[in-house]
Structures are given as structure tokens and as C-alpha cells.
Amino acid sequence: MSKVTPQLVVDGAVPLHPVISPDGRRVAYTVTAIGRAQTHPSSAIWVAATDGSSPPRRLTPGTAKDFIPRWAPDSRSLFFGSDRIERGTTQIHRIPLDGGAAEALTTWRSGIFDYLPLADGRSVAVVAADEPTEEAERRKAERDDAKVWGEGVPYGRLRLLDLSTGRFRVVDGLGDRHVVDLAQRPDGGPLAVLSWATPELDPVSFRCRLHVVDPENGKVRDLGEAALEASAPTWWNAGGDWHLSYLATTPPGPVGGRAVFDLTVPETGAAAEHRILTSGMTVCPTGLAQVASGPPLALFADGLDTAIYRLDPETRRFERTSRRAGFAASLTVSDSGEVVAALASTSYEPMNVHAGPPADRLARLTDTRPELRAVRWGTQERLAYQASDGLDLDGLLILPAGRSRHDGPFPLVTLVHGGPYGRYADQFALGVIPSGQWLATAGYAVFLPNPRGGEGHGPAFAASVAGAVGMDEWTDIVSGIDMLIADGIADPDRLGIGGWSHGGFMTAWAVGQTSRFKAAVMGAGICDWGMLVATGEGGTLEAGLGGSCGWEGSGPHRHDEVSPISYASRIRTPVLILHGEDDTNVPIGQATYFHRALRRFGVEHEFVVYPREGHAIQERHHQIDLLRRTRAWFDRWLAAPLVEGRR
Questions:
Q1: pTM over 0.85
Q2: Of 50, 267, 341, 494, whose CB count within 10 A is highest?
């Protein structure tokens, strides 16, 4: 059996961006390395037969960043984005499936943000910034680098590219709106366009508008404001009326999970009612897929598993078509709706592309990490238990590799997922940030809880943490730990906790509430919700979790009650703090503040900052350091045998 090293974890590849051909015969996807070894990442485009009749083949060499494949309407060629002309600047390319060379279709100096080949086969809808003006070039030459809010990020404007001439036509009717998503009506009609008022992540207003654009004449109809964080516009027809569905946050928001919204597109610019199609469901939509000849399909997080649903056009309700164990994402559908493809992972199988009929078992098409089969992994078990108030909860337990429950008790590390609107599905738990199998192969039992606030159990479950993070979700986690102690699996004297992002917050919260944990790893975590509203990408959305903003009077403020920094004087647990220096989601000031508090109160800790990294750690050598450092931290405080008198 192979030894699990940091290099084994980070030197593999993962598939991304699957997209099925209109005729359903092939699926194209991107393959990219887990650990980035260069300044500019590289990836390749692959294609596989959906029926598994031939092995996958690589279409591009992977010497540049080739990604976001999109099929031509006739399924005979493939478009993709690439920075092969100039590293860091994406242009649109097209490659035939018969093995011919790729052709560059654009040389737009500002690069391409997004694109969509249109049904006429003659044009492409393109989202791109304006090319730099002479004045902008002059300022750059003079090193005028003053940053003005609202001007720092270029607007993505909708343009129509004529493939025969290579010329662009700007859609003027959208004005100064930043386009973030688009979809064409399946009959080759208008485009549905979602736009923001500014390309900046606006920390005060996250308002999105929905438009219909005629690609022939560029005429725009404004359908008004869409629900919060709208995405994935999807067309479908019922009784001759065209509908638009999309994913967005359940009202009143901003905490409450995702829902599918729907409106009947009016013939004129009149306002339309946006209805929720997922009300009352105890599962959570994670993706929508447009079908040319019928209602849309959707992926739903269903506890530890994932299900495919189809919209019933008569009842306007989603009906389950199939359910698969573990995790699935990025659902893509053929024009007929008879073949689907998705990324999927189960307990011991890493992420791969799967395809098949939506009502049947999806077959694995790719095998991106065969080397992992030579490893003895920890046994992964499903858990079902109740919170202290009787709420049904689930999660996962990973036993130390080669051990069984009867060999316990073991040192236990609890890893809390991000979000809080995230979840642990019953998928392969190996990753760069503290991951279950990475620790299980070192002799730890690992608890992966799904406390309230996450996805997979409906909107009420998700909304229960609004203004109350760290409260009931914390006792949910404690209930699971206590169950594992009672079952003889966890050693109560060797408990650790860790997590990334919201999991990092929960780690910081935990060590301020109890001294049961002997070690903690806080990755990219929040310690002060008021400061996060002031500095993070989420802005006022974060106030939905923390419960208040600092500008709401002189206090006391709710966000102080649920901020770990308020309880720093109680902390006795050794803490490893990990953070990316360029993180804009949870800025590094959160880690620095917590570090200073621990210094003030003399708490044993280490503070590690990764240069050039954002909210996710991407550089290969940083990933290796993180894996080694995390396991060494738990080894230092948990793994050594307990001696007499220390219990």
C-alpha cells in the first residue's frame, strides 16, 4: 500500500467545467492540477463519449490555461477560453473534434470574462470589458495607480461577436450594467441576462437585475430586480409561454439557503411576479440545467447525498428523478434531456465526470486519480443523531486507517465545514485544507458534522443561524462529539478541532467556549463579525449572520455577542492560525486580531501567513506546508500517548 504524503495529495489533477454536447454524444471538461506550481495556472480540455464507448482524449496540450469549454450548436466543434496568446488574458478559441488545430477567435486586449455560442452558429455572445483608452494607457505609463472605488474593476459589457468578420457589436441598451450571467432561449430566441450595477463586489447593496436581450437587434427589455445573489438563468416553455427560472437566496435573506425562482416572461416590458418553486422542500437546489425540449432539470443537496429532479410544468413542482450516493455538481444536459453529465464523488472515489440517463445510474467516464487506489484509507461511516433540542442531524465519521470501532477510543479531530451554507456529503474526504482522510491516515478519528445553517435540509434549517452563528450550531457539534465519546470512539482527553472559513470561525468560537479541546486549527476564520462587515467581500450580507452592523448606534451590538474575539480571555487551547495574505473574502485582519488577542492572554499559538494567497491556498509549496503543519500541530498536542496522572 502507498504512503500518504503531502505530494500525493497536491500533485494530482481534478476535472472541472463539464459540458455535454447538444446531441448528447460527448462531454467536454477541463483538467487542472490541484497544486499550482507556476504564476499562471495551466489546464487542458478533454472530451469523452457519454456512453463510455471510447476512452477520454485530450484536445489541448495544457501548456496554457485552457478552460470553460462550450459546444458549437452542431456538436462538431468546441469553443474554449485560453490565455495561450498572452498569459493572464483570456481569449476565445475554437477547435474541431476531428483533431484539427485550435483557432483564436478574439484578440481583445482587455480579455474575455465569459461567452456563449449562439444557436444561429454565426455569432457568440461575449462579456468583456472595454479596451483601454489612450488616457488609461497614459495614466498607466505615468504610474497613476490611485484606486477609486467603483473604477477599480472593469465593467463586463455584453457584446455580440460575428464569427465571419471577427467584429464586435456592443449591446447599448444595458447601459453601465455589469453582466454576470446569460442564457439563450432554446429556440434560438433572446438572451436572458443577469447584471449588477457595478463590477465591484458592492458591500452595501447586492442588487441584481434581469433582462431579456434580442441578439438580432440588441433590443433590451428590463424584467426588474431579481432575488438576492441570482444566478443560473434557465429557460423553459409551458403552454406556449416562456418562463425563466434562476437560483437565488431564499427571502428575506441574506441567510436562508438557495431556492429556485421562476417568472413568466411577459411579451412587453411589464413587471412579472417572481415565484419560488422550491417552497416546502427539505432539500436544497445546487444547480439548474436547461433542456431544449422540456422543463429544466436540477441538482439538489439531499442530506449526505445528491438527487436529480425534473420540474413538472403542470404542478410547478420539482419531482425527484434519481438519487445518488455522495456528492454531485455541475449538472449539464443534452438538448433532448435524455443524457446528463456531472462531476461526482463517493466515499472512496475522488471527483470524476459521470454521465447517463437522468433517471438511471450515472457511469464514471474519467479516472483522474488512479494512484489513490493504492492507499488504505480510513473507513468512512454515515452518522445520524439528534441535537440537544431534538433536531435530526447527520454527518460523517472517518476511522483511523486500518482500524475499526472496536480499536477505540482514538484521538478525535472535528473538522467544521465552511459556509455556514455548506455541507459534508458522503464523498471522498481528501483535500488541501484540513481534510478527513489526511488525518485518518495518521491515526486520527475524524468527525465531519453537518450542524444547522448548512445546505441539504431545506431553507428553515439553513436560516436558523441568522444572527445567531456559534449558538445552536455549536451545540449541534458538541452533541455529535459527546455521542462519539459515549460510543467509545473518541478519547475525551485527546480532542482537536479545526476548519476553514466559517469552519475557522467555529474553531475560534469553540476554544472560547470550552477548554475540552487540546488543539485547534483556525484557517481563514472570522473572529469579529463587525469588522468583517467593514472589510470583507460580503459586507452587509455578513450582518445577516452576525446580527448587526457597527454603524447601528453605540451598542451593545449583537455581532459582539457572537464574535470569538469577545471571548479571547477565556482561551486556553493551543491554536494554529493559517491565513492567505491577499484574502478579500475574510481579510487577514481577522487572523491578525485573533493572534494579538492570544498574545495578550499568553495562549500558546502559531500564526502562519501565506503570501500571494487568497481565501483558498493554491500554490503547491504552500499547500504542502499547510498539510505538514496541520498534522504536526495535532501530533504535538493529541497524538502522544497519555501518561499516568495526565487524564
A1: yes
A2: 341
